[in-house]
What does this fold into?
Amino acid sequence: MDRKLSRRRTGANGGILALVLLLASGAAGAGNLYRWTDANGVTHFGDKPGPGASAVEVGPLNGYRAPPVPASSDPKLKEAAGQPKVVMYGTEWCGICKKARAYLGRNSISYTEYDVEKSARGKRDYRRMNGSGVPIFLVGGQRLNGFSEERFERLLDTGNQ
It folds into this structure.
């Protein structure tokens, strides 16, 4: 019985060690991803090009790329003077959406909102954007999934340039 407890402790410590190593490696994994084929015709992927092989850069490692913003000829989505057009896709029941609305109101930021459950336009745009959560913001030509004041302000500043 003591032996089983000892194994469990070791397993838990091993799990903690694995978690620490995984988190530590995440900070180092901010590079790029490469693909190459070795002399035997085997395709490899890694964070560094293979030795002596011509590697193709696949893209950023641990990077998220949002789906493209749907093109629209709607004049409401054109930029207003001094502030990029802000569009929010959300729901009535979403707590983060409520916080975002409060922030926008507090900072006198004009925006257009579409409810992705009640509005035909909101449902259609949400599907086109491959939405998987709310809120989704379109600021100028850029997209923000979710909401944080800092990320929103960065996006707003980028849109003003």
